Each structure stands twice: as C-alpha cells, then as structure tokens.
Input
Amino acid sequence: MKIADGIEMLKLPMNIMGMERIIYPTLIFDNDTVILVDAGVTNSLPEIKRAMEDTGVPFDRLNKIIVTHQDIDHIGGIKPIIDELPVVEVLAHEEDKPYIQGEKKIIRLNSNFMERINALPEDEREKIIDMFENAHVKVNKTITDGEELDYCGGIIVIHTPGHTPGHICLYHKKSKTLIVGDAMNVVEGQLIGPNKLSMNDEEEELAINSLKKFEKYDIKNIISYHGGLFNDNPNQRIKELY
Ligand SMILES: [Zn+2]
Output
C-alpha cells in the first residue's frame, strides 16, 4: 500500500509456529537507496519479492535492511535476502546487535516463550529452533538515538527500549511516517500500546516511557509491524497511551 511517494507499507502472510499471521514491513526508497524495514521469517523471501514487485521497486535494487529489533519475526528473513543480494547492508541499534549477530542468546529464548516452543508438536518445535539458530547475521552499521540517516530525504532513529533493549522506531521526514515495529500495535483500527505479554514490569514501564519520545514529531502515519496503518490523528492518540 502506497503511503506517500517513496514509502510503501508491504503486507505479507507469515507462518510462524504453525500460525498464519499478517505482517507489515515498510519499504522506503529513492533513486539511490531502497530500504526494507524488518524482514519477516526464513521463508518470507518469495512474499517479500512479490510485495516489492507490486510496488514497482525491483527486488534487486534493495540495498539496506533496517531492523527495529532482534525478534525472529523481524530478523529471520534477512539471511535468505543477503544470500541473494550480498550488497545489502544491515542496520540495527547497538544494544540489539549482539543478539542479532548470535553473540548473545535472543531474549525470547530466555523467557516464557521457551515454554510455548516446548509445547509445540515435535516437527514444529524443531523448525522454530532451527530458525532461531540460523537467523544470525552480521550488523554492518549501528544506529543511535536521535541520529538522522541521510537516506530518502532523511530518516530519524528513535531508540524505544522496552520490548527489547535496542528496539528502535524510524521517522521518515518526507512523509511524516513513524515506523514503530513492536513499540505499538493496531488492533481493529485502533492504535494501542505495546504487547505486554512478552515483557516483565520493568520492561513494560520502559516501553510505555519510550512512547513519550514521539511527542516532538509531527506524525501523519504510523506503521505497526503486526497491525498495519494508523492515520487518525496519531499524535493525540499516542498521548492517551502513557
Ligand atoms: Zn514482532
């Protein structure tokens, strides 16, 4: 779905742990740069190609992937992309970098998420553990809070810890679009706060506090990775969430 010139919200089916879900990665582009924000899971590649073709941006023009955080449904699709397009650079926040690179164990694997994995049927369990073990990629560039990336008219990095320590959101200046990853969600058309299930009390407080950082941006569109687009006066709605 076209959000504005040079920014598209992709819509892909994603199958993870035996469940069919929809995800909304974002594509930001100009004549020099094509950026995918979050990359789905290991088997998302054909869907990513199809969704990119639909926007008119050929897959082989892709040259950057920015990941909002380390979770498997955001990083799992990177490796298959890089195998085909080795020029693609991966950008992430410094605090999630060691998890993405495999130097630290991905946070979800230390939490009650593991109980859910263990409760799966044998073949599903093997598939998901395999996916975690093979998802690690090198982060080529770390990005920091407040940094403006000189791509596609300017993209501002906003560090929003809580869901993970190095979770980031991105503000695309030209279209006034805030890409929020998992920092907020959209359910039945309404913008809501972060998913509390995966966080302890301390992380939840951090995540809610992170929302205050959006106040200084003039936001026309919000793209949530699991919920899609929200454009009904976002600034006012965000204030109701903290
Ligand atoms: Zn997610």
User: Anything to note?
Assistant: The chain has a mean pLDDT of 94.
